[in-house]
Amino acid sequence: MRIIKIFDTTLRDGEQSPGSSMNVDEKIQIAKQLVKLGVDVIEAGFPIASPGDFEAVKRIATEVTGSTIAGLARAKEEDITRAWEAIKDAPQKRIHTFHSTSDIHLKYQFRVSREEALKRSVEMVKLARSLIEDVEFSPMDATRTELPYLVEVVEAVIEAGASTVNIPDTVGYTSPVEFGRVIKAIKDRIGDRAVISVHCHNDLGLAVANSLVAVMNGAGQVECTVNGIGERAGNCSMEEVVMNLATRKDFYQVSTNINTKEIIRTSRLLTRITGIPVQPNKAIVGANAFAHESGIHQDGLLKEKMTYEIIKPEDIGLKQTELVLGKHSGRHAFKERLRELGYDLSPDEIETAFKKFKHLADQKKDIFDDDIAALISEEVSKIPETYSLLDLSVSAGIHVKPTATMKLKVGDRIVEKVAYGDGPVDAVYKAIADVTETKSNLLKFEVKSITGGTDALGEVLVSLEEDGKRVRGQGADTDILIAAAKAYINALNKLAARKSPGNV
Ligand code: KIV
Ligand code: ZN
Fold first, then answer.
1. Labelling 368: which of 80, 428, 451, 455 has CA 20 to 30 A away?
2. Beta pairing class for 323-325 and 367-368
């Protein structure tokens, strides 16, 4: 059976989602999980884009083994040498270079002729090939490129040494029947001289459908992102394309190297790290994807699961029950649960997380997977703590002016502050803003309960912006005001970390 390669671009195209930027340690966590998931290629970033991007790709190339690590480069000499510098230490590596080919891009954006675009593409593939064996080329905006010219570029770059030609639907413009024809035309022309890859954006909601039809017409690699994150409406969703191929193997007659049991863990880890939620009705990984509400469906399911269930929840790694630990659970059980949840923490990080868990278990009887994930997200993120919360008390009520009294550690100073606000959260945020002298704007403030009950762990997510840089902060606690303070401080720490070189 034909194996379709899964090329994951969560850390590159996915990171282009508004508000989803991750720091280097977070990217490493995701990359390690992608290896467990079994992706063939991890596009780790765009090394020339910034020193932070370079550093992230370099560290992934050195620390993450088991998948090919790709670095993106425009068809420019400096991009290609920078990408090579970043990935050269990886045991399996790839340079992915691209040049636009549509007349719209060539005329209005790059102001070069078709001949010039073709010449640069060929020269840059040759340059990349002089450094590395595995070279992928993308004719950007391929689906708005005249087909004969697209085929000419594809043949020329294969001749120059590209072993994968990726056909991007950059603006999510194509539709399944049309895209199938394009892929077939390319396949008929190039045969097995190179792998055809597809890279579909979801502007019209067709990224997964377009990728599947491409597979049917000879594509051997699909580029996608976890939870479908990405610029604008996102990219082809990894879990959807993979589960289509797995569930309808009878129809597609292909397989992938993905261990589908790692899907839910990967999805949750990404949500936790980026703070980008998954819509509840999203296929495969949405909270309601396996929830059957109607009486007729429930009746059928009780008699025979096959009546209404086409995917077993266990196949994507969902457990029957997620009630895991309580006050009396020991270190061993906790460590085991972390491992099952996909966290790869050092002994020190486990110890800190265990202390937090014990503290939570004193406040809350049942600890669920989501509680644990929320608790240890700070450990995973490893943001240097420029600011940390030492103490907080708040008074508020119908006849009391909301007042926050706060003690913060700023570097090695301890600062105390009292602030008043329109409400308790406002008072807390005014105190923090005063102490940290932040110039950032608060763009979004969300509160959610991680699990049920009045003792539920509350999670607060905030988005801040400063000098065009956006960050998301999160904080969890059974006291929602403490969670709010932690989230704001976490975001401010991320902004501070971004100001120091080497961080993204
Ligand atoms: O969407 C696109 O065209 C891209 C290329 C860089 C492959 O992301
Ligand atoms: Zn893209």
1. 428
2. antiparallel
